[in-house]
Amino acid sequence: MQFMAFLSKKSIHKAPILGFSVFLIPFLAFSYDGPLYDFTAYTECKSVPEKPLYNGGIFKDQAPLTQHRISASSDGSYTPALILQNLDQNTMYCFSIWVKIRGADSTLVTASLMANNNSTYDCVGTVLAKSGCWSFLKGGFILDSPSSVSILYFQGTTDKRINVAIASASVQPFTEQQWRTNQQYIINTERKRAVTIHVSDSHGDRLQGASITIEQISKDFPFGSAIARTILGNLPYQNWFVERFNAAVFENELKWYATEPEQGKVNYTIPDQMLEFVLANQIVARGHNIFWEDPKYNPAWVRDLTGPALKAAVSSRIQSLMSKYKEEFIHWDVSNEMLHFDFYEERLGPDATLHFYKTAHEADPLASLFLNEFNVVETCSDVNTTVDTYIDKIRELERGGSSMNGVGLESHFSKPNLPLMRAILDKLATLKLPIWLTEVDISNKFDKETQAIYLEQVLREGFSHPAVDGIMLWTAIHPNGCYQMCLTDSNLQNLPAGDTVDRLLKEWETGEANGLTDDHGSYSFFAFLGEYRIRVQYGNRTTNSTLSLSQSDETKHFNIQL
């Protein structure tokens, strides 16, 4: 039986699967016959598992088929598995399950998929499970070819004798069109807002037939790219950048090895010039980075320091950088890639990073301080940076008193697994911190056309997730190309990835709109968040105003008097 539901903005986040729905947004309503994505996620371990999402999805009217597999470790432990039948190619499969372990205090439980064509997807979701309570695992996968019978199995660390129990299993498929429709719904509700302009004369009488022109002059959502010193003095490159982006990050020029290659010889000349370009064009900038935990990206002289000498150098670095650029950068990546490397904590003790954050906050209290890491959202195969590991590290720093303000996800993708990416973002959203995709690109192992396809998938996924607050591309131009992916050639002519970015930037802006006020003296429209210039003309009278649209569920009412 089909039925109709009217959905508020809030209802989509925990909406059950519906047979037929109408998305009702001010000035935008459309029907949709399909499931609504559920952004629910949990990071706490619970005594009783929650009910399955989507009422179980494909298991809604039947208990899931399960079996037990002997662990690959051959130590007698077993792992539960779900048997999935008739899975389609290029369908987004979102799954969730509650797991409970026995045999260890805690362990990483990994979800893997085996299809009947001998294809194995080694990691499609993870959770750091604890003994004695239920932990929530959320993941997803896309098959390269159809599979009549597939096995989704859940296995603990193979070097321990660990048994895994499962409950509240859910698997929900989305076609590509259903996925896109859900993305567009979130864009319409999170990135846009309804506006009604009321036009009246000096006596307060409403004016029907007044001509209104609306032009977006800036965007609220930060979308930008890395730049390098190569932009200095390069007017064509500068113009190309300013026409597209409202945010920037310096690729290498603020890193310690760039600003102080020799001890005591600090030189900020290049970043000063880059900052001058950014500020002159009203572009916000992220500070990247204060410390990089990878030893090879620290100055050689720093690698030779230990104990008090290293501690003094670290304090000098923070004070020098943060006092020089106080209130100039909206963010600072205080610690870069600390889940993969531990240069400073190994030498200065386990509280070294906590000290970095406290000191940076004292030096620039208005800057948002980020942790920045790779392989958190790109994959779940990296045991160093599973989503729960990242969440645990951030909460550990918060408990220690650090002013942690943001989650940095580098986002260096190979072939993206979009349902997994979204599931990871859902879990990170439980931190209730701003999330930025900070270094987005696609591996150069793919040809340029494939890079563009995968880039569009990642950008749409980021822009349509309600917890993502900004996106930065890692596409600074150098004479020999870019890090992994370029948007243009050396003559600033678009490559396929550049065409993708330009098309999305155009899609995600309101542009210019024209209309007339109705018999109530009102004109309504639906627009992306940002700043607008409004011109109103009635007879021989004209006025110009500006309007700022910030995120809200409510319609923005704006009064203009002629």
Automatic annotation (TrEMBL):
Alphabetized GO MF terms: endo-1,4-beta-xylanase activity
Name of the featured protein: Endo-1,4-beta-xylanase 5 isoform X1
Domain GH10: from-to ranges: 208-504
InterPro entries: Galactose-bd-like_sf, GH, GH10, GH10_dom
SUPFAM superfamilies for the chain: (Trans)glycosidases (SSF51445), Galactose-binding domain-like (SSF49785)
Entry keyword set: Carbohydrate metabolism, Hydrolase, Polysaccharide degradation
Gene3D superfamilies: Galactose-binding domain-like, Glycosidases
Keyword Hydrolase: yes
GO annotation terms (biological process): polysaccharide catabolic process
Organism of origin: Populus alba x Populus x berolinensis
Cross-referenced Pfam families: Glyco_hydro_10
Sequence similarity: Belongs to the glycosyl hydrolase 10 (cellulase F) family.
